[in-house]
C-alpha cells in the first residue's frame, strides 16, 4: 500500500514496534505488539498471532489501547500499523495469521473502516476474514464483524 505512514522502530524479533503520532495534540508515542494466542489456531494447527496497539506508556511499559488520542492522524496511524503487520509477517514465519479486535465496538468499527477503505490493496497481500456469530468468513463490505483475521497470500 502506498499510503502516508510514520517511520517505525522494531525490536530484534519484530514483535514490538514503536512510532510517534504527530498532530495538534503534539507528539504521542504509539506501540504495536504481536503475541501468539495459545488458545486459537487455524484448522491445520498454525498458531494465530494477536496484534495490539495503542499509546505507549513509558512509566509501566504497557500499551494503552483504551485511550482515544484524537491527534487527527488516524489514517496515517492505521497505515503505519498495517506496515508493521507486513514487517512482522515477513520476519516471523510468513504464513502466520494475524488476528485483530478492538478493545471496544467503536475501535473494532474503526479497524473495519480502515480495512474497507483499502480492501483492494489489502487483498493483494492478504486473505482477509471477518468473525461474526461464532464463524469466520471471507471479509465483505457491509457486514459488521466482531474481529478480523489476515493471512498473507
Distance between the termini: 15 Å
Count of DSSP strands? 9
Which stretches are low in confidence, meaning pLDDT under 50 for 5 or more residues running? Answer: none
Number of helices: 3
Shape: globular
Spatial extent as radius of gyration: 15 Å
* pLDDT averaged residue by residue: 90
Number of domains: 1
Derived structural class: alpha+beta
Encode the helix/strand succession as letters.
Answer: EEEEEHEHHEEE
Main pleated-sheet profile: 9 strands, mixed
Helical proportion, percent range: 10-25%
Beta-strand percentage range: 35-45%
How would you describe this protein?
With 153 residues, the chain is an alpha+beta fold. It has one domain. Helix content is 25%, strand content 39%. It is built from three helices and nine strands. Strands 1, 2, 3, 4, 5, 6, 7, 8 and 9 form a nine-stranded mixed beta sheet that branches. A hairpin with a 5-residue loop joins strand 1 and strand 2 (16-23). The two termini are 15 Å apart. The mean pLDDT is 90.
What distinguishing features does this structure have?
153 residues, alpha+beta, globular
Brief characterization of the structure:
The chain has 153 residues and is of the alpha+beta class. It is 25% helix and 39% strand.
Write the layout of secondary structure elements.
Elements: E1 9-10, E2 16-23, E3 26-41, E4 47-57, E5 62-64, H1 74-91, E6 98-100, H2 105-117, H3 119-125, E7 126-132, E8 135-138, E9 147-152
Parallel strand pairs: 4-6
Antiparallel strand pairs: 1-2, 2-3, 3-4, 4-5, 6-9, 7-8, 7-9
Amino acid at each position: 500500500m502506498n499510503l502516508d505512514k510514520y517511520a517505525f522502530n522494531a525490536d530484534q524479533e519484530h514483535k514490538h514496534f514503536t512510532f510517534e503520532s504527530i498532530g495538534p495534540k503534539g507528539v504521542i508515542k504509539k506501540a504495536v505488539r504481536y503475541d501468539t494466542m495459545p488458545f486459537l489456531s487455524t484448522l491445520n494447527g498454525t498458531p494465530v498471532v494477536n496484534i495490539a496497539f495503542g499509546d505507549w506508556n513509558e512509566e509501566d511499559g504497557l500499551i494503552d489501547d483504551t485511550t482515544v488520542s484524537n491527534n487527527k492522524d488516524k489514517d496515517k496511524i492505521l497505515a503505519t500499523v498495517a506496515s508493521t503487520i507486513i514487517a512482522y509477517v515477513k520476519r516471523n514465519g510468513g504464513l502466520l495469521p494475524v488476528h485483530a479486535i478492538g478493545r471496544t465496538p467503536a475501535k473494532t468499527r474503526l479497524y473495519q473502516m480502515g480495512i474497507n477503505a483499502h480492501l483492494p490493496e489489502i487483498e493483494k497481500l492478504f486473505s482477509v476474514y471477518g468473525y461474526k456469530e461464532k464463524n469466520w468468513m471471507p471479509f465483505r463490505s457491509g457486514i459488521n464483524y466482531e474481529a478480523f483475521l489476515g493471512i498473507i497470500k
